[in-house]
Amino acid sequence: MTLKLGVPSKGRLMEKTFDWFAARNVQLRRTGSDREYAGAVDGVDGVELVLLSAGEIPHELAAGRIQLGVTGSDLVREKIADWDSRLRVLEPMGFGHADLIIAVPKCWVDVDTLDDLDAAAAAFRRAHGFRLRIATKYHRLVRDFLREAGVADYQLVDSQGATEGTVKNLTAEAIADITSTGETLRANHLKILFDGLVHQSQATLFRSRREGWCDGMRASFDALADRLQLDL
Amino acid sequence: MTPKAAIRACADRLQQAFVADGATPVETDILLPAETLLDLYGEDIRARAYVTSDPLRGEMMLRPDFTVPVVQMHMDHGADPARYTYLGEVFRKQEHERQRAAEYLQVGYEVFDRETPVVAEAHVFALFAQILAPYGLHAATGDIGILLAAVEGLQTTERRKAALKRHLWRPRRFRALLDRFGGRKRMPESRAKLLKAAAGGVEALLDKGGPEIGLRSRAEVAERIAALQADAAEPPISAAQVDILDHILSLRETSTNALEVLRDIAVDMPALGAAVARMEARLDALAKAGIDVAALDFEASYGRTTLEYYDGFVFGFYADGRPDLPPVATGGRYDALTRVLGQGDGIPAVGGVIRPELVLTLTEGRT
């Protein structure tokens, strides 16, 4: 069995991943036509390149169908329960940076911290009869973060896109979303809470901890790790 | 792994004991409307319960516990006083692998009684103790009512007391608030800046906030600023009072000794009196029901990390030497929950549940 390396199948994330490996003398390349999701790994024997949507890589790793994978650390934490018992971080790759943050309307001049958010949520629930709504697609990460911080009287509402617009559209009172520059937030009259950084994400090389590893894979992995100079 | 049929048979035997005590067996739905549960328990329940959707009825949850449907059933068409017993599956999502069962049976017993709450509490506890006596369990007890009374007894504003009571079930947040209100920790820098800016005129400050978006109105923001200003003008809760509260929170004693300690504390904090008197009455009732209260553990903070619906006497039964097992039985008083579900119209309620598969595990472990 060959060792399978899952890599995002398109866009900047794919290009940067190829560059990262190339800088370490491992050539990843697509094979076949531009549109065909097939690839190869040059420089190390017994490693197969699998091109996948970045969002599917966490599950494939956790299920042990691929042994190595590149994806955002936010996606792994969001999608995989108890992620660190099932996957291991091999190396943060230094690109694809994005912060998952909690933002509230700028006109809430009284709210700058999670502590304020909690107090505002209590008053909001009394005044409006329902829990303050936070729009996000990162339910697990945000819920764990707010529980840790002791924020109560909120509810998460699902938003798969244009999350910054939910406040103006009256479908949420606050948001938790990924941002890199904060420009979209500002344009939508939102501000980030001082202590509202849920997770700093970046592209990361993960290894599956699952059974399904054979000796051949381990040998290929050792050769690859050596080439990449991974600190194991 | 214990076969399900064996667990079911064990559950039946346990339930017979509740029936013999005069409880009416009841059934509830397994699919429950998510809204009620979410409103009651908050976002945490979504992490713990299986949520599914129905094309007509919207979001539904697989029964995470029996308390809510049984209380609703009683409020809709039950007559007081009432004793109920139930037996069925509950479902809890597990976020960590190899941890605990996601589906298991519960056998429960609930008493709705307006007349003699402490007698009902003693009765429930003694019944559980008697049913579980063969398994050599260790009982833990507490009283959230004492904690609520202690917060109520602080010489400070209603707003601060409300904030502390709201976070009674989140010990770390409770501590942070107490440190702030007690002047042990300074207010966050952002708060100081806000108060300084607000001193120059709240309207101007709000204008600078930019366009008003969302449901939370300008008036609500102004109201909170006013509340913060009022709070900043308040003196801190005295160190002596914070010490009293700390003393109560850390109290771990036998019930008899705990009562003595609390009686002494009530001299300095008279607001504690009613809750202490109630504890004394309960201990008397427990003694009458055959419980050795001089040997019964009491831990004032017990029950603070569970879902927040117990608001009085709380108890649990644990297998000594098996820290890997969850409590075999838990229970307590939950009057406030009935008030929320009854939209202000509550009924004193106390009850508990046993997990038969744990009872069986302990039985098998000994043979």
Write the layout of secondary structure elements.
The complex is a heterodimer of chains A (232) and B (367).
Chain A: E1 3-8, H1 11-22, E2 27-31, E3 38-42, E4 47-52, H2 57-63, E5 68-72, H3 73-79, H4 83-86, E6 87-92, E7 98-105, H5 114-128, E8 132-136, H6 139-149, E9 154-158, E10 174-179, H7 183-187, E11 190-201, E12 203-208, H8 215-228
Parallel strand pairs in A: 1-4, 1-5, 8-9, 8-10
Antiparallel strand pairs in A: 2-3, 5-12, 6-12, 7-10, 7-11
Chain B: H1 4-20, E1 24-25, E2 31-33, H2 34-41, H3 43-48, E3 51-54, E4 58-62, H4 67-77, E5 82-91, E6 103-112, H5 117-132, E7 137-143, H6 144-152, H7 158-166, H8 171-181, H9 189-199, H10 202-208, H11 218-232, H12 239-249, E8 252-254, H13 255-268, H14 273-288, E9 297-299, E10 313-319, E11 329-333, H15 335-341, E12 349-354, H16 356-366
Parallel strand pairs in B: 1-5, 7-9
Antiparallel strand pairs in B: 2-4, 3-4, 5-6, 6-12, 7-10, 8-9, 10-11, 11-12
Helix pairs in contact in B: 1-16, 5-14, 6-12, 7-8, 13-14
